[in-house]
Amino acid sequence: MSLRATASAPEYWSEDAVALCSDLIRLDGQLGSSDERAGAEYVATLLDGLGIESELVESAPRRSSLVARVAGANPELDPLLIHMHLDVVPADASEWSVHPLSGEVTDDFVWGRGAVDMKNMAASVLTVLKHRVSTGRLPRRPLVLAFLADEENAGVLGAEWLVRERPDLFEGCRTAIGEGGGWSLWTSPEQRIYPVHNAEKGWAAIQVTAHGAPGHASRINDQNPIRVLAEAIGRLTSDRFPVHLTEGVESLLRVACDVHGLSFDPERPEEALPLLGFDATQIRSGLQHTAHPTRTSAGYQSNVVPSVATAELDCRYLPGRWEEFEAELHAALGDQVEVEVLARTLGLTPGRRNAENGVWSAASTALQAEDPTALVAPFMTSGGTDATHLERLGIECFGFSPVLLPPDLDFWALFHGVDERIPSQSLRFASRVLDRFLDSY
């Protein structure tokens, strides 16, 4: 539906993103204790006020996704899909400086669960739409806006369900932008790289089980399944997974080396990581497969050795290299435990048209208008996004959620972390860059 012109936009229109992000944070979308219905209804009401129709779709009661279409100045162009998720991971309020659902704005930060993952992008996109309605400006091409459920649970009730049950909602889309890239990576006080992700690791939930003979805890028992399990998962250290340099990580490291006038050695990519500052740990995770125990279960009485012990692993493997990862995992765990794959996604690999896609030039143009030092570089994210499902519809996906960050902020530590927050200036910057992007792409 066409955007409806209203009164003139305020001079500082991008400021709206701060209030919108705060509002969205206050709408509880924590997995396990809440749902996405309140967030979806909030967005639907806002879009309706702008003259934009939307459809609220539920894969299960109150597990809500919202999809809307916005007209473009050139209706013959393929629509751009912008996907965001409304759910967030749980937060323990006792660990936070502020309540995680407060949306508090203080010290020029917006605080709360979802501030960086990813209600910030939803707030910026909505701010851009408000601005364009107020000025009567259509984006260059049509848009499909998807506010999705369940991304933090691998998209089972969100993107995965929609791709399977409602592919019509994405009809015509060949390119998408979403979370996972676009933040400022400070390589020096005079230069910033903005990584745009076009690949991502696959994810797997794996259960590891050890069995043994139950008995009295006073007796010697070398087959205590808890000990066997602990020793097995204790071998899942980073040195158990060799370095495998992929094109996505190599491209980013080469740009960083070029900025510093250094040569890149593909035989020793780790040597370039210190050039990335706070981001070195995040990018290092893209050099190898990983497997981290996140939940364990065993026993029912303190003086009884149990018969079984289990651990659940969160595994991230380089895309297209599942068999290689399985071999490395089994070699580390040993043969005294059973291994079962509970769920798995395939990850994201660059599409055939990736290098020629206009996203790269549009992102560069939009970023450099706001930050003249900006360099855009492709990379592979070690996390997972809904792109892994959307790719199955033939949609080429990019992580482009642009934010300019202070050089002393460890951005990636805030994802799923305590005291999650985003600078207010980053929200304003993101809105302006996305607004320019919609004129260029």
TrEMBL record:
Matches recorded under NCBIfam families: PRK07906.1
Coiled-coil residue windows: none
One Pfam assignment: M20_dimer
Gene Ontology MF term list: hydrolase activity; metal ion binding
Family note: Belongs to the peptidase M20A family.
Species this protein is from: Leekyejoonella antrihumi
PANTHER family (alphabetical): ACETYLORNITHINE DEACETYLASE, PEPTIDASE M20 DIMERISATION DOMAIN-CONTAINING PROTEIN
Keywords: Hydrolase, Metal-binding, Zinc
Name of this protein: M20/M25/M40 family metallo-hydrolase
InterPro entries per UniProt: ArgE/DapE_CS (IPR001261), Bact_exopeptidase_dim_dom (IPR036264), Peptidase_M20 (IPR002933), Peptidase_M20_dimer (IPR011650), Peptidase_M20A (IPR050072)
PROSITE patterns, A to Z: ARGE_DAPE_CPG2_2
Cofactors: Zn(2+)
Every Peptidase M20 dimerisation domain range: 199-335
